[in-house]
Amino acid sequence: MKTRATFIGFTAILMWSILALMTAASGTMPPFQLSAIAFAIGSLPGIALFIARPERLQALRQPAKVWITGVAGLFGYHFLYFTALRNAPAVEAGLIAYLWPLFIVVGSALLPGEKLRWYHVAGALTGLAGTALIIADKGVAFDPTFTLGYLAAFLCAFTWAGYSLISRRFEAVSTDVVTGFCLATSILSLLCHLGLETTVWPQDVSQWVAVIGLGLLPVGLAFYTWDYGVKNGDIQILGASSYAAPLLSTLNLIIFGFGEFRATIGLACVLITGGAVLAARDMLFSRKKAPN
């Protein structure tokens, strides 16, 4: 059960790995507008399920703390991430934002029934090193001028890690409630768009396909499978394995002609894969005790 849930959670990481590719293919739509549309699409399968099975609407009747956690996690993460990119260079902001898998692994020690081992931390740090190679390939220069952006990126990482860890405490809450989180995030993103951005619509069918794909997968289904995974799977393995997302994202961009392969990418592959295997050693290499 736990292994199956962990693999289901990992599918979210696979879907997030195509986020950059599909965003690039979606045209020049402003981030909050894109977020509003994508999260609206992401909520549609859940809405369809509620229409088909009205009794599942009871999943939306949750305490305020569940709703606050969910909406703060989904909308808060994206709001802070966009704020970071607006107020700091993308390389440095992205590197800080990707502290969230490490925060999840370390923070898991606070969860009931979880034990933090040295190899969980070592695996997460190794994955972070690999991610740093990808993101900071051309160098990093932290400038105090961009302090606001750096702070937003840090809060972004802290927000997503906190959402994931707190969700584990709500393991009895049905994943159906994620539909409500997506819908609320869509509405809040729309309000931000109307107040901060100029509307830009896709120019052709391929861009619309990319936008719909975003809503169905990395900004849709991924949040449902992640919710199920962190509630029922091995959250430490999921945290460390999350560093596969920027690696796979970079490889996807290279395959589809948006980038080129470099030696640092190969080294990052080794570090991130090795870190994930190290963090998952209990699941991958556990031995059954011999019968007495």
Shape: globular
Number of helices: 14
* Estimated radius of gyration: 19 Å
Mean pLDDT: 89
Q: Helicity level, as a percent range?
A: over 70%
Q: Strand share of the residues? A: under 5%
Low-confidence stretches: 287-292
Mind explaining what this structure looks like?
This protein is mainly α and 292 residues long. The chain has one domain. The protein is built from 14 helices and no strands. The chain has helices at residues 2-16, 19-25, 31-52, 64-87, 90-97, 100-107, 118-135, 147-169, 178-196, 205-232, 235-241, 244-255, 263-279, 281-285. Helix 1 packs across helix 12 (244-255) and helix 3 crosses helix 10 (205-232). The chain is globular and about 50 Å long. The two termini are 26 Å apart. 47% of the residues are buried. Residues 287-292 have low confidence and may be disordered.
